[in-house]
């Protein structure tokens, strides 16, 4: 079974409280999404493999470490996932960015793909699928399924706020995918919102209604 990691660093908790407050406007909300994305990625990449190389400092020759291993790709689920991309790229500027767009079929209520553009070397990359809210888990599970169908072998899911229902759904569908959250909230309400949550993340990021 995959692991669920709640990265509850004090800086993240502080920024998340600002996001949760209904009086926080779009500009600050966007900034918080970006900054939390950045802080989370710092933790998520903690175990990236390193190798030692020889370099010369202005003082002497020495051995020092650089990253090796697979390259990363960030896959925001449209549209709210876009808000997390800039923060992640600040930490991993060489990462490629793919996009997955899904809408919910009004009759079947199942997520349907309307856009998918991925980097070419799918099998060679570690993927971070990003979406601020892990609510029902339907979109995240569908995006992960799509990536796997295209050949992705290594996928992590990164969300800001999750709930037990969404975590369980993704774990049942994709037991190989680790889930990283900034907070695991209480529940999903009858309207599909996470409680206490922070409302509609997409609308709050982009200032829409
Ligand atoms: N999507 C959101 O933006 N917010 C929720 O609470 C649930 C799904």
Automatic annotation (TrEMBL):
EC number annotated for this UniProt entry: 2.4.2.9
Query: What GO terms are given for molecular function?
Result: uracil phosphoribosyltransferase activity
The keyword GTP-binding appears for this protein: yes
Pfam families in the cross-refs: UPRTase (PF14681)
Report whether Magnesium shows up as a keyword of the record: yes
Annotated metabolic or biological route of this protein = Pyrimidine metabolism; UMP biosynthesis via salvage pathway; UMP from uracil: step 1/1
Q: Which reaction does it catalyse?
A: UMP + diphosphate = 5-phospho-alpha-D-ribose 1-diphosphate + uracil
Q: How is its activity regulated?
A: Allosterically activated by GTP.
- Record-annotated residues binding 5-phospho-alpha-D-ribose 1-diphosphate? 79, 104, 131-139, 200
- Cofactor remark from the record: Binds 1 Mg(2+) ion per subunit. The magnesium is bound as Mg-PRPP.
Domain Phosphoribosyltransferase: residue ranges: 6-208
Sequence similarity: Belongs to the UPRTase family.
Biological role stated in the UniProt entry:
Catalyzes the conversion of uracil and 5-phospho-alpha-D-ribose 1-diphosphate (PRPP) to UMP and diphosphate.
Tell me the protein's name.
Answer: Uracil phosphoribosyltransferase
| The organism of origin for this protein | Acetoanaerobium pronyense
From the broadest rank down, the organism's phylogenetic lineage runs:
Bacteria, Bacillati, Bacillota, Clostridia, Peptostreptococcales
């Amino acid at each position: 079974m995959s692991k669920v990691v709640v990265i509850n660093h004090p800086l993240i908790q502080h920024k998340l409280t600002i996001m949760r407050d209904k009086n926080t406007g779009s500009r600050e909300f966007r900034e918080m999404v970006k900054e939390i994305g950045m802080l989370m990625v710092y933790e998520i990449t903690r175990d990236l493999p390193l190798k030692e190389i020889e370099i010369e400092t202005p003082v002497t020759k020495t051995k020092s470490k650089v990253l090796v291993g697979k390259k990363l790709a960030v896959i925001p689920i449209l549209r709210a996932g876009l808000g997390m991309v800039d923060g992640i790229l600040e930490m991993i500027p060489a990462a490629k960015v793919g996009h997955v767009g899904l809408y919910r079929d009004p009759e079947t209520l199942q997520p349907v793909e309307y856009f998918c553009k991925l980097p070419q070397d799918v099998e060679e990359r570690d993927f971070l699928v990003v979406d601020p809210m892990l609510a029902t888990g339907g979109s995240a599970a569908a995006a992960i399924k799509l990536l796997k169908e295209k050949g992705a072998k290594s996928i992590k899911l990164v969300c800001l706020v999750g709930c037990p229902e969404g975590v369980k759904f993704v774990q049942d569908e994709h037991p190989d995918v680790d889930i990283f959250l900034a907070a695991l909230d209480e529940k999903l309400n009858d309207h599909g919102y996470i409680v206490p949550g922070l409302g509609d993340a997409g609308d709050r990021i982009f200032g829409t209604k």
